[in-house]
């Protein structure tokens, strides 16, 4: 007869594998008291104390004998001189202790296996349902042993490089003041590259210990905290632009800026709002030890869109060391709560653009510059500092500080004339001063004569009263021939800023950097970040007047962007040829291509608009095509629709059916994404009509798009039919990469119909082909499908493994669109496993990406799932 005893969960006794009845609670307590001694005899008095404690009845000894007699009918219990002994060959508690002891003598994978086997013996809380005082203490002792074993196991797993974050996060939520556990979570996060979250866990524990117990974390945790800080010091952002070297006056306005809350500095363009804000900020740096944040919101940029709240927040979070993750006002406000930060929001268009960038604490100071007074902010308590042009004395002082007092004093009447021409506008005065400083030997009267002779109308009289056109033309006339030529050409640039490489293409002459430096010295161009140049918007308007119809230079500028976008597209999608742009020097990797697209996206949109306006139809269509994959990876559905409508119009002008079909496909798919079913059907149907019967590749692509649209509408059977047609077409065309993708898509549609065996067969064939071809994107998509199949087959561990592999590939490819979907699906698996903390964390991350990508349906569905 084999008898097995289980203490690590509900008390169990199995005789020859079958559960045996042990009796009521007190009798079961006697059995536990015997098992706890691991085969040693237990005196009667100790048994009585363990079963009844201080409440032992008068006839406890007789009652105990009765319990023992009943137990002896089933179990091998012997009476000995030292008490009663239970002979037990198999007790899960003893097995657990032996395995843990063995595991602690080793330091390799075998130790991890022993720990896993030991911890796997636990079936739940030890000895549930038994309540004698001694048993409560014994149960707690066992729980401590289990926790210590789990902690030892985690130490080893971290050392061996295992991913233990999901279970650590769950355990930390249950035991938030366990310092050793929090230390393990911090170390795992730090080694996973998420030191910022590790430091947040330390701060949460420190605050909790201080509030509840009045103590600090122990020495080991403080040492770990210091190590993480040393290895990854929390960044102190220093984003302020440099102050103007010759800033003058504005004493009253500087005094009016407040050191906490929100101050709005409002005034006309060129009046010096940014200069004032930056000057004040640099004078008060010591008041803000946690750093300074800056963003140019470009609210009045003549050709570009204002910076969105999300983009500005992303920059702030990056500056604060919070790379990746959710981008939200709430996260930003939580991060800066209690900090002494100075935040400069430059060139704001309206209150709405600013509201989401305000911290939720008065410990931070916010300076907002705008041409508008932003009444919404003022209504909420912001302080207004209105800014007008400089008075005569301050204007003269600015010129004196720039040119020298002796030079200004030598020609006071001329200086008065110059100040009059500039209308007290600091931008105009700075340009005049820069011109005069270039030629120290030239009398100021000669400069005044040049300026007076321009005879041009005021460019900005409505805002400032200054004859800016005259000031700009006069400054331009003082440039070298090369600088003057480049200045005019820069008026052709349709975006807010542009790169050095694009300017080199525009200018098509050597030594561009030196020429740009001359323009910088004349205050006509600013290199606001390394390698990128912009003009003040009033200067840009003047340069645009000078640019004229220089079609050749503009064509070079547009072609430069097209070639680089083509290189980026071919880097991201090497299997999708662009014969019109080959040969083309590609980017080193997908990440660098995505960075280029991120930096140049605004320029590319502007360049395509220019190409469309000029009737450069081939270029217009190709720009849409080269941005296609970038838009998909970033989830920029609205931008994708914009560029492809221009692309469709261009293809129609060209009379090119293939290009028209491609445009209809992309437009249709984007309408599907936005639930515009009728428009989607119209475009996708038109796509199929445009392809010839023997164009297998093109028709297969159309079937593929229609399958995706039908799936989105819930017609999985129809989607499968078109997916099979697509697979057949790609096979006939001999396109293996398209075939690999189509195999996965057929498998996915079978999975959507619940036909998992067929789904797995197609997806495994797809995976093998993708691997042979080195098609990383195809592998990632197929892993997502295999994970879905495993999840719905009940193989949750396989599903999690596949999803993590898919995430790894999508992140390497910088494909945040598909990353969002995989995070959502991974959360579903954890929810099915009752791991709700992990599930909500994954869903939150997916929801943030959905919203940032404009995926309204996905976002709404997931928000409902989260109960929001």
UniProtKB/TrEMBL annotation:
Coiled coil: none annotated. Gene3D superfamilies: Tetratricopeptide repeat domain, Winged helix-like DNA-binding domain superfamily/Winged helix DNA-binding domain. Residues 1-88 form the OmpR/PhoB-type domain. SUPFAM superfamilies: C-terminal effector domain of the bipartite response regulators (SSF46894), P-loop containing nucleoside triphosphate hydrolases (SSF52540), TPR-like (SSF48452). Residues 1-88 bind DNA. PANTHER family: TRANSCRIPTIONAL REGULATOR REDD (PTHR35807:SF1), TRANSCRIPTIONAL REGULATOR REDD-RELATED (PTHR35807). This is DNA-binding SARP family transcriptional activator. It comes from Lentzea atacamensis.
């Amino acid at each position: 007869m084999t008898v097995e005893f289980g203490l690590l969960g509900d008390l169990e006794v199995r005789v020859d594998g079958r559960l045996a009845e042990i009796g009521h609670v007190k009798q079961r307590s006697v059995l536990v008291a015997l098992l706890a001694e691991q085969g040693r005899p237990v005196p009667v008095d100790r048994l009585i104390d363990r079963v009844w404690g201080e409440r032992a009845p008068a006839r406890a000894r007789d009652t105990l004998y009765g319990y023992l007699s009943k137990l002896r009918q089933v179990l091998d219990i012997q009476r000995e001189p030292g008490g009663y002994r239970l002979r037990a060959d198999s007790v899960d508690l003893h097995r657990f202790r032996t395995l843990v002891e063995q595991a602690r003598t080793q330091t390799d994978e075998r130790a991890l296996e022993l720990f896993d086997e030991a911890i796997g013996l636990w079936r739940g809380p030890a000895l549930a349902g038994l309540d004698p005082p001694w048993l409560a203490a014994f149960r707690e002792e066992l729980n401590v042993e289990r926790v210590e074993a789990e902690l030892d196991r985690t130490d080893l797993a971290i050392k061996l490089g295992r991913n233990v974050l999901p279970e650590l996060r769950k355990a930390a939520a249950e035991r938030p003041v366990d310092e050793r556990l929090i230390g393990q979570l911090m170390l795992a996060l730090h080694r996973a590259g998420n030191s910022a979250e590790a430091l947040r866990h330390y701060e949460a524990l420190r605050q909790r210990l201080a509030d509840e117990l009045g103590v600090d974390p122990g020495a080991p945790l403080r040492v770990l905290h210091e190590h993480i800080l040393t290895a990854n010091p929390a960044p102190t952002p220093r984003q302020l632009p440099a102050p103007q070297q010759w800033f003058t006056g504005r004493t009253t306005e500087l005094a009016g800026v407040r050191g906490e809350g929100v101050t709005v500095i409002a005034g006309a363009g060129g009046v010096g709002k940014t200069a004032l804000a930056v000057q004040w900020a640099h004078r008060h740096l010591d008041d803000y030890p946690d750093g300074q944040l800056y963003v140019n919101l470009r609210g009045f940029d003549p050709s570009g869109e204002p910076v969105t709240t999300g983009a500005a927040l992303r920059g702030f979070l990056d500056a604060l060391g919070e790379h990746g993750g959710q981008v939200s006002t709430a996260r930003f406000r939580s991060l800066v709560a209690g900090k002494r930060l100075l935040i400069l929001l430059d060139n704001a268009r309206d209150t709405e653009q600013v509201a989401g960038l305000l911290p939720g604490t008065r410990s931070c100071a916010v300076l907002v510059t705008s041409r508008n007074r932003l009444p919404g902010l003022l209504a909420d308590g912001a302080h207004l500092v209105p800014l007008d042009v400089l008075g005569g004395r301050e204007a003269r002082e600015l010129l004196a500080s720039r040119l020298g007092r002796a030079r200004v004093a030598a020609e006071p009447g001329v200086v008065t004339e110059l100040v009059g021409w500039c209308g007290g506008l600091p931008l105009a005065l700075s340009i005049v001063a820069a011109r005069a400083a270039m030629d120290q030997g030239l009398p100021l009267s000669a400069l005044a004569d040049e300026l007076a002779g321009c005879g041009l109308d005021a460019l900005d009289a409505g805002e400032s009263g200054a004859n800016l056109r005259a000031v700009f033309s006069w400054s331009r006339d003082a440039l070298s021939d090369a600088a003057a030529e480049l200045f005019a050409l820069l008026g052709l640039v349709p975006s807010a800023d542009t790169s050095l490489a694009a300017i080199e293409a525009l200018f098509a002459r050597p030594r561009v950097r030196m020429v740009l430096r001359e323009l910088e010295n004349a205050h006509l161009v600013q290199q606001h970040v390394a390698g990128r140049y912009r003009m003040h918007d009033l200067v840009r308007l003047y340069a645009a007047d000078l640019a004229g119809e220089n079609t050749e230079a503009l064509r070079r500028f547009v072609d430069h962007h097209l070639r680089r976008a083509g290189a980026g597209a071919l880097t991201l999608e090497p299997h999708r040829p662009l014969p019109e742009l080959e040969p083309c020097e590609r980017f080193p990797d997908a990440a660098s291509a995505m960075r280029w697209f991120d930096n140049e996206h605004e320029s590319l949109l502007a360049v395509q608009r220019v190409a469309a306006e000029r009737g450069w139809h081939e270029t217009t269509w190709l720009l849409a095509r080269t941005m296609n994959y970038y838009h998909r990876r970033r989830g920029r559905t609205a931008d994708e629709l914009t560029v492809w409508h221009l692309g469709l119009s261009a293809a129609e002008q060209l009379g090119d059916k293939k290009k028209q079909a491609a445009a209809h496909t992309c437009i249709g798919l984007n309408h599907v994404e936005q639930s515009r079913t009728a428009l989607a059907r119209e475009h996708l149907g038109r796509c199929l009509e445009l392809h010839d019967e023997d164009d297998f590749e093109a028709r297969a692509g159309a079937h593929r798009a229609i399958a995706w649209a039908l799936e989105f509408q819930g017609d999985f059977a129809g989607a499968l039919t078109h997916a099979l047609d697509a697979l057949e077409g790609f096979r006939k065309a001999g396109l293996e990469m398209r075939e690999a993708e189509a195999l996965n898509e057929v498998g996915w549609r079978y999975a959507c119909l619940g036909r998992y065996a067929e789904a797995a067969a197609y997806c495994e064939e797809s995976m093998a082909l993708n691997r042979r071809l080195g098609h990383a994107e195809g592998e990632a998509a197929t892993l997502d499908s295999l994970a879905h199949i495993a999840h719905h087959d009940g193989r949750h561990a396989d599903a999690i493994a596949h999803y993590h592999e898919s995430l790894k590939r999508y992140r390497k490819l910088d494909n945040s669109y598909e990353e969002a979907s995989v995070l959502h699906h991974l959360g579903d698996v954890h929810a099915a496993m009752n791991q709700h903390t992990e599930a909500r964390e994954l869903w939150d991350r997916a929801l943030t990406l959905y919203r940032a990508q404009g995926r309204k349906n996905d976002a709404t569905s997931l928000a409902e799932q989260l109960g929001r």
